[in-house]
Amino acid sequence: MSEPVRGGVVRRAAVAEWGPLWRAVREPLAARGLRAIPLTLASVTLTLMLQIVQNQPWGYGPVQAAGAPTAEAPLPLALLRTPLSLFVPALDLPVWGALAQVLVVFGIAEVTLGRWRTLALAYTATLAGTLYARLGIRLGPDNPIGLPPGDAWVVDTGPSAAVVGLAVFVCWRLRARVTCALVVAAMVGEVVFVKNNLAGKEHIAAVAATLLVCLGWELAARRRAAGTARVGAAQRSR
């Protein structure tokens, strides 16, 4: 295959994969600018503020108490801490990474899905990770999806699970199927080859929860389409 032909094939494949996503993001941003992503900007600001506060001698305790769930804590307390935990950066990772993830992925999701749907999906993915930690510890380290008992005291914060969930849903929703598969494969590879720990397995839990949401969405869309088709057929037969 000649170089121009090969380049044309690659270009068409890229347009087919990312064209709908690019158009869905470009048009609202071109029309409204930063006004199109108020949730994203608020999330970035909140994440940065929590990072600053938790690094102060007087701020670490309150931030942990309000937004740092652990599997050893009572479930009601962990559930209360989970929403804010989405915006509390992990102390062992650079905050710029969390801010970049939120800005890019939350921004794309907010523009393409809407702010409330974005927030609901982000929380669903984060909650899946929080609940998985309890299940993993019960299963124990001998189970492939289990966790060692010591992970019960590991602080579970950061936007990464939400980012992964949103990335999977946006790619599925806008039919970027190859990219969606690559995100899922990257999370599996992270656990198998890089981080076989609580954080890595929570990403898998976030992916699994999001794929269930995708399946439910698809089934609901098919039911609506079938209902519309039946109504149309009934009207034509009159």
UniProtKB/TrEMBL annotation:
Keywords for this protein: Membrane, Transmembrane, Transmembrane helix
TM spans (from-to): 33-53, 93-113, 120-140, 152-172, 179-198, 204-221
Keyword Transmembrane helix: yes
Coiled-coil annotated spans: none
UniProt protein name: Integral membrane protein
